[in-house]
From TrEMBL:
InterPro entries, per the entry: Class_I_gatase-like (IPR029062), Peptidase_S51 (IPR005320)
EC class: hydrolase
SUPFAM superfamilies: Class I glutamine amidotransferase-like (SSF52317)
Molecular function GO terms recorded: serine-type peptidase activity
E.C. designation(s): 3.4.21.-
Protein name: Putative peptidase
This protein's UniProt keywords: Hydrolase, Protease, Serine protease
Family of the protein in this entry: Belongs to the peptidase S51 family.
Gene3D superfamilies: 3.40.50.880
PANTHER family in the cross-refs: ALPHA-ASPARTYL DIPEPTIDASE, PROTEASE S51 ALPHA-ASPARTYL DIPEPTIDASE
GO-annotated biological processes: proteolysis
Length: 201
């Protein structure tokens, strides 16, 4: 199993997977009407293209498990974009695509996550409740992640993004650090999980 869990962007994407990736954009769907959202979404797609990757969109809210299974069977990797973590997990679970995705990744499909896409790969998304909004998915209830890795990624931990001041990360560690194996990532950092182990890069 191979995972590259980023905060936002990493040079290793280029070497981690080549060819075509299934691009799951749904974590940004609640940002669609926000004036600052479009540049963020475009930057993420452009970044993948700059790394030489082709993009095949896999939108959860309009896909069935069978459709997702077909797409994931035909690509070289999967990229789960950033956005609202709680809404992303709710969509994965209610569509049933969570089980399909886990099956393919455990069978060897390389998984790249950014921000929310990295968080959902872990054991629980509860520790990002100070960064994201649990209230956007009031019916989610269970915050168990995809359990593809044993760590909970806390993205954007550099304190350089105005809506995520450094104090939020200190509060997150105080509230959740004793119960969860947190990994705080700055933008440009990643957690690499492969056959050799788990590495901060």
């Amino acid at each position: 199993m191979r995972l590259l869990l980023t905060s936002f962007g990493h040079d290793r994407i280029r070497d981690f997977v080549r060819g075509t990736v299934a691009y799951i954009p749904d974590a940004t769907r609640l940002f669609a009407s926000h004036p600052d959202a479009a540049p963020f979404i475009d930057v993420e797609r452009d970044m993948l293209r700059e790394h030489g990757l082709q993009i095949r969109e896999l939108r959860l809210e309009t896909s069935t498990p069978a459709m997702a299974n077909r797409v994931l069977s035909e690509v070289d990797g999967v990229y789960v974009a950033g956005g609202e973590t709680f809404d992303l997990l709710w969509l994965l679970r209610t569509t049933g695509i969570d089980e399909v995705l886990v099956k393919h990744v455990r069978a060897g499909l390389p998984y790249i996550g950014t921000s929310a896409g990295s968080v959902v790969a872990g054991p629980s998304i509860a520790p990002v409740s100070l960064l994201d909004s649990p209230e956007v998915a009031p019916d989610l209830g269970d915050y168990t992640g995809l359990q593809l890795c044993e760590h909970v990624i806390i993205p954007h931990a550099g304190g350089t993004i105005p809506q995520f001041p450094i104090e939020i990360f200190a509060d997150t560690v105080r509230k959740y650090g004793a119960d969860y194996p947190l990994v705080l990532l700055k933008d440009g950092q990643a957690l690499l999980v492969d056959d050799l182990g788990t590495h901060l890069i």
